Every structure is written in structure tokens, then in C-alpha cells.
Amino acid sequence: MTPTIRIQSAPFDPGHEAALIEDGRRDIGAIVSFTGLCRDEDGTLAALELEHYPGMAEAEIARVAEEALARWPLSALTVIHRHGRILPGERIVLVITAARHRGDAFAAAEFLMDYLKTRAPFWKKEHRADGSVGDWVEAKAKDDAAAERWNK
Amino acid sequence: MKALYFAWVRERIGRAEEELSPPPEVATVGELIAWLKSRDEAYALAFENAAVIRTAIDKAHVRHETPIAGAREIAFFPPMTGG
Predict the structure, then answer these.
(1) What is the rounded CA–CA span in Å between residue A142 and residue A71?
(2) Labelling A46: which of A1, A14, A72, B39 has CA 20 to 30 A away?
């Protein structure tokens, strides 16, 4: 099974991506879909600018996807991550996992998101609603902890 | 080798990429950071807290202890905040 991995500036449609996975299959019992959105931070954020490392972003997500496939018997796997300017309410990231049983699909989706957060080379910069350029978003210790728990 | 800088590392250095020719005694990623840091104030600011800087050689994560011999491309960036 080859995972579907896309790094793109264009928006994506989670329903369409899930339908592509379901199409023509009779062996899949569970599909889990996670969508990460851009928050407006109580009206203070005008946009996020997502910088990425072209080439490495694809390669690193592919490595994380291979790890997920080695850990759980997945029937299908899709990861889409956007870059560029993203407005509040827009989608940033999509992870879809499909498996015979829901436990594997849920666990793999959570693993993928935890690992993407700490290993995929993307960086968010804030543009504030008052017109000023804000700060680079700081990495959170809780994200490292979330990724670390899969090593136990 | 080609060096790439991302996010605030790129902004502090003032460029996204450049060719580097470190002296032969610079053997590891960490030593390369120390060498860059000594170049001027911009690099010193970018690498002032070297411990937080993440690095990749040829598009794969590496640690500061990793040798740089044979590297074609080396990237320096802050902890990642995607997802």
C-alpha cells in the first residue's frame, strides 16, 4: 500500500479525499479523518504564513507514514499539508487512515499527527489583525511529549 | 556544501541559502554551527541558543554530533510548528 502524500498551497476537501479511499473497497471497516484548521485566536490573527522545506517536507512525511504502516495494518493512508498564506477558518492539514478495525485507524491517525507536529519541516508565522507582523509560533513542549509517548 | 536556512534562522541571517566552505577541522554539525556563529553578528544572533537549532543533512534530520563529511545540503531551522 502506497500512502498518498501531498504538500500544496491549494485548499483540499477532506470529504473528497475520504471518498477516494472508500471507492471500490469492500475490505475497509473504519476510516478516521483528522483536519487541522487555522484559528483566529479570538479575532487577533489575520493569517498564518506557513514556511516549509520543499523536498524534505515530502520525504519526512513519507518516513513518518512508513513508520505508521509498520506499526498498524492500514488499508489506506492520506496526508495533505498546506503551505503559504492560510486564513482563519481554512484547513491546514489532513490525515486520513483506513483499516479493517477502528482501533488501528484511530491510533495511526493520532500517531501521524503527533509525529508530523514535531518532525515535518513546517514553520508558522503569525500576521495579526491590527496589520502588524507577529511572531513565529513557538514549538510546544506538550507536542514533544505527545510524540515521545509513542516510543514507550 | 549548500546551506539552507528557514523561519527565524533565515530572517536573522538575512538569506535563505548560500554555499559554505568550512575549514577541514570543522567535522560535525555542531562544529559547523560554532564556525558560522563566529562569522558575524547576524550569524551570532541566529545561533545564539545553538541547542534549540534543528538540523538536516540531505533532507533528513540529524543531531549536532553528526559528521558533515559528504553532505551536499545542510539545513538549519527552529523547532518545527506544522500540523
Answers:
(1) 23
(2) A14
Which chain B positions have a beta carbon within 8 Å of A138's beta carbon? 79, 81
The closest of A124, A142, A109 to A14, measured between CA atoms, is A109
Interface ipTM: 0.96
Tell me if A121 and B81 make a contact (CB, 8 A cut-off): no
Domains within chain A, CATH numbers bracketed? 4-151 (3.90.1170.40)
Contact yes or no for B57/B74 (Cβ under 8 A): yes
Determine, yes or no, domain membership for B37: yes
> pTM higher than 0.90, yes or no?
yes
Minimum-distance CB partner of A116 among B77, B79, B82: B82
| Alpha carbons B46 and B53: distance in angstroms, whole number | 9
Query: Is B61 part of a structural domain of the chain?
Result: yes
- Smallest CA–CA distance, residue A26 to chain B, in Å, is 31
Nearest-CB residue to A119 (from B4, B6, B61): B61
Number of domain units in chain B: 1
Q: What is the domain range of residue B17? A: 2-77
Contact B56 A52 (CB under 8 A): no
Per residue in A94-111, pLDDT (tens digit) is 999 999 999 999 999 999
User: For residue B30, what is the domain's CATH number?
Assistant: 3.10.20.30
B83 within domain boundaries = no
